[in-house]
Amino acid sequence: MMTFEEKITPQARWRQANPKAVWAQNALRSAVKRGLIIQMPCEICGSPIAEAHHPDYDRPMLVNWYCRKHHQAEHRRLKCEAVG
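^ thats the sequence. predicted structure below, dont judge the formating
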């Protein structure tokens, strides 16, 4: 029989472990929706489809805009930096 924790998705587990990140994402999403922040193209390649990257969750409106490819690359870079 599966326990309750085994039924939780990886995304839900991440949200539980990272409440400050979830708060920052929700605050930014609300600001974009209200027109207070304008979604920008990828800072590296200029792709119009970009995601927000928060370098500091304490400052939710200060973000870098990256396409999915460059956003993942940034997270890999940060992970390597933290390990090394």
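Residues 11-83 form one domain.
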